[in-house]
Amino acid sequence: MSELFHTPLHDLHLALDAKMVPFAGYAMPVQYPMGVLQEHLHTRNKAGLFDVSHMGQVVIKGDNYQTVATALEALIPVDILGLDQDRQRYGFFTGDAGGILDDLMLANRGDHIFMVVNAGRKADDIAHMKANLSGVTVTEITDRALLALQGPASEAVLSALDPKAASMRFMDVATLSLARAECWVSRSGYTGEDGFEISVPAAEADTLAKELLAHADVAPIGLGARDSLRLEGGLCLYGHDIDTETTPTQASLNWAIQKVRRIGGDRMGGFPGADVILTELIQGAASKRVGLLPEGRAPMREGVPLFAQADDATPIGKITSGGFGPTIGAPVAMGYLPTEQAIEGATVYGELRGKRLPMTITSLPFTPANFKR
Amino acid sequence: MKFTEEHEWLRPENDVVVVGITEHATTQLGDIVFVELPEVGTVVTKDEEVVVIESVKAASDITASIDGEIVEVNAALADNPGLANEDAIGAGWFFKIRPTDPSQMDSLMDEAAYNALIA
Fold first, then answer.
1. Of A168, A212, A205, the residue nearest A188 (C-alpha)
2. Based on the number of CB atoms within 10 Å of its own CB, is A207 exposed (0-12), middle (13-18) or buried (19 or more)?
3. DSSP A71-125
4. Residue A36 and residue B59: Cβ atoms within 8 Å?
5. Number of helical (H) and strand (E) elements in chain A, helices listed first
6. What is the DSSP code (8-state) at residue B28?
7. Beta bridge partners of A351
8. Counting beta carbons within 10 angstroms of the beta carbon of residue B13, is it exposed (0 to 12), middle (13 to 18) or buried (19 or more)?
9. Which of A36, A299, A331 is opposite residue B30, by nearest beta carbon?
10. How far apart are CA B93 and CA B88, in angstroms?
11. By CA distance, what is B85's nearest residue in A?
């Protein structure tokens, strides 16, 4: 794995006896000796520490926040101008056909925007911004690690290091002093649990991680549990549940596009694919992302074709993410179905090893979000 | 007890053979969340897929390492597939097979050979 990038916590992962795997060009911990199942449950019950340093951290600067927000609204169909200072919002870059180029988090940091994008897409995202934005500077932050502390004990753990953490609400951002370093912290994450994402200078990352892990409630958690946690949380994984072929409406992400950017809003449209996306926001799309609960215990994974009837010849959709949900104690999946057949409570059939197994269409998330609003 | 390169163990018990997978295998697979067992009465031939194991990571096949008839399966795995992780060579057994030709067992590895394989 010598050609893989190492995060600033690489040595710590090895010391913790992590199983390392290549992911988006990085050597990343997929699990620790606790194992995926227990890591998942530990995060839901106490707190888990994730290394997400492979993700892209980007600072976009201009004359002032308004300049930067206005520029970015030309690429991202969400209300960025109206985002209050020290608040964060979910969004995505869209393409000319209305598909999603990447999903992201962006924060109003007063005079600039701090953005976190997917590891596998960061080079494209940065090139996309540099090519299409004028009057702003786009800088990838490469001297910081990114940690996620997730789970109900997160607030108690982090506020012991800086009491300011306790006063943050879901999607607040703040600069905290952790491990004697200036950390950019958001109260967010991608597990469906309360928690924090912490951008820490690379030189202090190891120290901070060890301080957090020293707490009895905190365990290191790998990418395996991160995936099952976000799946139970109904959250999309880019490249699987969403990609350039899926529009926001197909992906059931209408909620991310505020009224001000929709038809009739003060700043309607003006982003790539707006004609498609704005129309679908009103009329719906041909297909839709739904939750799926397989009957029985066999996990139904990505790629499983979905059929309307057990003996139909032609599939109507497919699973885009699926596996075992440790908190649910049963298999869970997400996939796309024709909108007219995407009816909650209805049954579809997934084909697994030559058998058609029934699955119930369900709303998302599978586990209720546990945010501190 | 005999072992295979597919990390199965086979333990003769009277006129049948109890089959499961080794602790080395369950450790590699991670947490097992589902085991699809054959139906009792199924006649299998060597190298035929006989069990599917789903872990939190992926699905894996187990093939029959001898010819025979499935005479019993471990019903406890249906409700608690984690038994295979907790007690791989005991309570986590998969099925019992009545060998067509018991001499097929002779070509399988003994414990020392298996331990050398996974060392």
1. A168
2. middle
3. HHTTT--S--TTPPTTBEEEEEEE-TTS-EEEEEEEEE-SSEEEEEE-GGGHHHH
4. no
5. 8, 19
6. H
7. A356
8. exposed
9. A36
10. 7
11. A35
Closest CA to A151 of A205, A183, A192, A105: A192
Q: What is the pLDDT of residues A7-60, one digit of tens each?
A: 999 999 999 999 999 999 999 999 999 999 999 999 999 999 999 999 999 999
Pick from B111, B115, B8: which is nearest to B53 by CA? B8
User: What ipTM score was computed for the predicted complex, to two decimals?
Assistant: 0.85
CB contact under 8 A, A299 and B59: yes
CB B30 within 8 A of CB B56: yes
Closest-CA residue of B relative to A37 is B31
Rounded Cα–Cα distance for residues A208 and A210 (Å): 5
Q: Would strands A218-220 and A47-51 be described as parallel, antiparallel, or unpaired? A: parallel
Q: Is A57 on the interface with B (CB under 8 A)?
A: no
Name chain A contacts of B37, Cβ cutoff 8 Å: none
Entry field: residues in chain A = 373
What are the beta bridge partners of residue B58? none
Please determine, for residue A2, whether its predicted confidence score (pLDDT) is greater than 70.
Answer: no
Question: How far is B20 from chain A, CA to nearest CA, in Å?
Answer: 19
Neighbours of A200 (CB within 10 A): 26
A36 in B contact zone (CB under 8 Å): yes
Beta carbons of A327 and A232 less than 8 angstroms apart = yes
Q: What are the residues facing A5 on neighbouring strands?
A: A26
What long-range pairs does B75-78 form, CB within 8 A, spacing at least 24? B77/B35, B77/B37, B78/A297, B78/B35, B78/B37
| Paired strand residues for A59 | A114, A139
Q: How does DSSP classify residue A103?
A: E
Query: Among partner residues A31, A298, A301, which is closest to B30 by beta-carbon distance?
Result: A31
DSSP state of B85: H
pTM of the model: 0.94
Cα gap A18→B44, rounded to integer Å: 39
